[in-house]
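Quiz preparation item.
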C-alpha cells in the first residue's frame, strides 16, 4: 500500500524533477563497506525513481550523476564510478528503449575517457526517437562550467555578428545553456540531509521548489519520490507575486 501515491494530484504534476543523488558513500560506510558499494546500490534507486517518474507521466527527470568536482575524487573511485555509470546505462538502455524513455546527458563529456563517451553516445542514439520520459543525466556537469561555456558561445556569436547585445535577454541566456530544450525544473530533491545546491542548475532553479530529505540515496524508493511530489503540491508557488494574486 502506498501512503503517498494516492495523494498525488495527477493534474498538478511537476513537468520536470531534478535530483541531487547524495549519500552513497555514507550509506556504504554504515554497512562497513567501500564507497563504490554505495554507488552500486544507488543504481537500484535510479531505476526505481525513473520507473516511478515514467509511470506518473513526468516529462523530464534530471539526475546529478557526476559533477565536475567529482573528477577530484581518488582515481580508483572515479574509475569505478565511470565504469559503473556506463555499464549500468548500457544494461538499462533496452529497457529504456522499450518504455519510450529518451536518454539525454548534460555536462562536459569531453573530459570522459573517449571510449566511455562513445559507448554513452551509442545508448543515447538508441533512445533518440522516444517521446516519453526524458531522462537527463548530468555527467561531468557543473552549473558554473555550463554558464562559462554559454558566455563563451555568446561572445563568440557576438563577434561573428550572429548575436546583438540588444537581443540578449533571459530567454537568450537560457537558450545558450545545455538545458535549452527543457523547461526549468519545478521541483529539486536532494537526499542525505545536506542542504546545498552544489553547483547544480543554478540558473534553472531560480523559482524551483527545493525538497530535502534525510534518506540516503541508496535507500531512496518510489515512495520517497511520491512523498516529495505530495509535499511539492502542498506549496503555493507565487513567483514573486502575492498570495492573493496567485489564488484568484
Ligand atoms: C553521491 O554520493 C553520488 C554520486 C557522486 C554518484 C551517483 C551515482 C550513482 C547513483 C550511480 C548510478 C547512476 C546512474 C545514473 C546509472 P556521495 O558519494 O557523494 O556520498 P557521500 O556524500 O555519502 O560521500
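Solution:
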Amino acid at each position: 500500500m502506498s501512503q503517498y501515491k494516492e495523494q498525488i494530484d495527477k493534474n498538478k504534476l511537476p513537468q520536470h524533477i531534478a535530483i541531487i543523488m547524495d549519500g552513497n558513500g555514507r550509506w556504504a560506510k554504515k554497512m562497513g563497506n567501500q564507497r563504490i558499494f554505495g554507488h552500486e546500490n544507488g543504481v537500484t534507486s535510479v531505476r526505481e525513481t525513473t520507473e516511478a517518474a515514467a509511470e506518473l507521466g513526468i516529462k523530464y527527470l534530471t539526475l546529478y550523476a557526476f559533477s565536475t568536482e567529482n573528477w577530484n575524487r581518488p582515481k580508483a573511485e572515479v574509475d569505478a564510478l565511470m565504469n559503473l555509470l556506463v555499464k549500468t546505462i548500457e544494461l538499462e538502455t533496452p529497457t529504456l528503449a522499450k518504455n519510450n524513455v529518451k536518454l539525454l546527458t548534460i555536462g562536459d563529456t569531453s573530459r570522459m575517457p573517449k571510449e566511455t563517451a562513445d559507448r554513452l553516445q551509442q545508448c543515447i542514439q538508441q533512445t533518440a526517437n522516444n517521446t516519453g520520459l526524458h531522462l537527463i543525466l548530468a555527467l561531468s556537469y557543473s552549473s558554473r562550467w555550463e554558464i562559462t561555456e554559454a558566455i563563451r558561445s555568446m561572445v563568440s556569436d557576438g563577434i561573428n555578428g550572429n548575436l546583438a547585445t540588444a537581443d540578449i535577454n533571459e530567454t537568450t541566456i537560457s537558450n545558450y545553456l545545455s538545458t535549452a530544450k527543457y523547461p526549468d525544473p519545478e521541483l529539486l530533491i536532494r537526499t542525505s540531509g545536506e542542504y546545498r545546491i552544489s553547483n547544480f542548475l543554478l540558473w534553472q532553479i531560480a523559482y524551483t521548489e527545493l525538497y530535502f530529505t534525510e534518506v540516503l540515496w541508496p535507500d531512496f524508493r518510489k515512495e520517497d519520490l511520491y512523498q516529495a511530489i505530495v509535499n511539492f503540491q502542498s506549496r503555493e508557488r507565487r513567483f514573486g507575486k502575492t498570495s492573493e494574486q496567485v489564488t484568484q
